[in-house]
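User
Please review the sequence:
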Amino acid sequence: FLLSCNFGEILLMLVASLLGWPAPLLPIQLLWINLVTDGLPALALSLEPPEPGIMERPPRPASESILSRRLGLSILVQGALVGLVGLLAFGLSYWSHPGDDERARAMTFCVLVYAELLRALAGRSQNLTLMQLRVWTNPYLLLAITVSGLLQLGIAVFPFTRSVFDVLPHTPFEWLSIVVLALIPVSTIEVVKMAIRAINPTTTDHDPLTLPE
């Protein structure tokens, strides 16, 4: 989860630079994302209960690396999804308000935070969807997402925190765009899981079609 978050942020900053855009995030915004909105869900994911039927699965091959090829691919794909929605957020805002770097950064900041918070829900399992796991089986994760989400909302709403993080207040349309863009990564991951299950209903954590996180 953390590796893909960081890869997405790196990709966002790199591609924006290559396109000649202004920096889509400020250092203080990146620090906030890494320390608060990524850290709390990552800790909560470590408390995820064992999946149903986990003892019926074959063990991981002894020769398999900790960072396997499939896991590495998953990190890259999920990180790319996060970076993509960040780029879309910045690009859409920047094109709608030419020259308003601050507004575009504020939009990107919120989209990236909420996209990563929601994506933590998909990180609970490599194969099972959120509906299969049931939402309430990891209350620590729900608490972490709620707390982090409210902290981010406070930054976007209160004048003092807006000035500290150099963000502008969002319009209703911008809030709607933030919600839609933030849902893209987690929705894509969950749809991929369902597609893999449909193709091979007996897939396990070590099957070739598995997309681990």
